[in-house]
Amino acid sequence: MNPVDNPYRPGAGRRPPLLAGRASLLDNFEVVQTRAEVRGEGDRSWVLNGLRGVGKTVLLGELFARATARQWIAAKIEVGASGPLPAALSRALTASMRRATGHHPEARLRRLLGVLKGFSLRVDPTGAFSVGVDVDAVRGIADTGRLGDDLSGLLEVMSETARDLGIGVLILVDELQEAPEESLAAINTAVHHLGQLDPAPPVLLVGAGLPSLPAQLADATSYAERLYEYRNVGLLDPGAAREALVVPARDLEVEWNPDALEAALDVARGYPYFLQAIGKHVWDAARTDVIDADDVEVGLEAARQEVDDGLYRSRWERATPAQRDVMRALAHLGGAEPAPVADIAVAAGKARTSDISVARVELIKKGLVYAPERGLLAFTVPGMHEFVARQN
To answer: CATH number of the domain at 319-389, please?
Structure first.
C-alpha cells in the first residue's frame, strides 16, 4: 500500500490517529472545562503517571489543544528542556498571555499582565517579557522570590481573570519527576493554596511523569497525597489496543485479517509506542488493502528493529558497565515487574546492597529505572527487560 497514506505515527510525543483507551480522561477534562466556563469553578489538579511511551506527553498535548481551542489561558512546559522550572513557566505563561491579548479585551487582562510581569522579572530577570501590551509590573503580589508564595499569588489572580472572562486556566508540566524537590514543594504549596479558596478557582494544573512521581510529590510535602487526582496512564487493554490498529486502517478502507491482527496484538502487548511502530511497518509491508499474516511477519521484524534501535539501544548505550550489570540483574529477576534492590545486588555478584548504590542512583537520574517503592527497582520502559536479556 501507499506509504504516503500510512496513518500510524510512532515517535516521542506524536499524536496517534486515535487516542484509544483514553476516552475517560478526556471526558473528565470536558467536564472540567464546562464547569469552569459555566460556573466559574474548578476541581482538584491532576497527576498523570506511567512508564515511558504510554502516551503521557500526547495526552498533555491533547489537553493543551482543547484548552487553546476554547481560548483558555494555557501553558505547557517540559522540566529540564527549557532551563529551571520557574523561568520556563514564566516564559510559557507569557506566551499564553500573548495569545490571550488577541482573544480577550485588553482592559480585563491588564492587572493579570502586570502581576505576571512582576513574577517574570523575579524568576527570569534576563528574559524578555513581551505580551504585545505595554504594562507596568504590579508590586507586592507575586514577586517576593519565594516560588511557592509567588506562584500562589499569580495563580489566584489568573483564576480571578479567567472567571471574569468565562474561561479557565490550564498549566501542563511534563517530566515533572525531573524537578528539584524545592520546585515540587512550591507547586504543592500553590495547588494547596488554590484548594483553600471558595469557590474553587477555575485552574487546573496537570503534572505528568514516571510512576515514582506521586511519591516524590509526597516527599516534598506530606499533604500532596490529598492534593491531586492521581491518574495512572498504563498499557492499553486488549479492546483499546485492537482499536488503535483497526480503526485508523478502517477509516482508509483497509482491513486487518483476524489472524494477522492477533499476531500483531500478541507482540505489542498493549504498549502504545510499539503499537504505532507495528502499525506503520505492517502498513508499509502490506501488498493489498487486506493486511494478512505475511504482511505482519515482515512488518513486525522492521518494527522490532526500530524499537530496539530507537528506544532500547540508546538507553542501553548510555549506561556504564557497572550500570549494565544492575540492568542485567533487574531483567533477570524482575522482568516487567519491580525487583528488590537487595536481590539485584546479589544477582549482580555484589556482597552488599551499598555496592550498587552509585549505579542505581545514576540509572534513576538517567531515567532508565525508577523506584516504585522503597527498596524496589523497575525499568521505566515496557519491554526493556527483554532487550537487556538479549545483550551479551
So the answer is: 1.10.10.10
